[in-house]
Design a protein that fits this description.
Elements lengths: L1 E2 L3 H9 L4 E3 L16 E5 L9 E6 L2 E11 L2 E5 L8 E4 L5 E7 L5 E2 L5 H5 L4 H15 L3
Parallel strand pairs: 1-2
Antiparallel strand pairs: 2-3, 3-8, 4-5, 4-8, 5-6, 6-7, 8-9
Length: 141
């Protein structure tokens, strides 16, 4: 497994079929992946399905979001920490899927498909707000 030094190197390693470890930035995948704290292990997908966490280029940057729908050759992605706004990319643009999440404390977890979290989309805004307040009160970033 290799750490991605830069985007070109990451794409090259994935294209070669190697596993890549990456530390994402941002809060778009809260509560399951904390940007800057947790890491993910990526692999080139043979296939993927709804619920997988995928990496794809989108508008000049990379997004690491959950696949919420597949419409023909189009993949619709949305971050778990987002309540609205989705990205649409071509299936061929998906570079990798997450096969493991490495938490800040060193624990390794297999990603889930996030079925319940996806169903909770109508109330997700309130759950995320409550979690952020809880973490602020009790010092967990």
């Amino acid at each position: 497994m290799e750490n991605a030094g830069n985007n070109v190197r990451m794409e090259q390693l994935l294209a070669e079929g190697k596993l890549v470890k990456l530390t994402p930035v941002g809060d778009s995948m809260l509560p399951f992946i904390r940007g800057g704290a947790d890491s993910v292990v990526l692999c080139k997908p043979e296939s993927f399905r709804v619920g997988d966490i995928a990496l794809a280029p989108y508008r000049g940057r990379y997004v690491l979001h959950r696949v919420v729908r597949i419409e023909g050759d189009t993949v619709v992605m949305m971050g778990d920490g987002i309540v609205k706004g989705k990205e649409k990319v071509d299936k061929s643009a998906v570079l990798a899927i997450v096969i493991e999440i490495v938490k800040a404390n060193g624990k390794h977890r297999k990603p889930t498909r996030g079925r319940l979290w996806r169903v909770l989309l109508p109330v997700r805004r309130y759950l995320l707000k409550g979690m952020r307040k809880w973490n602020k009160l009790f010092g967990k970033q």
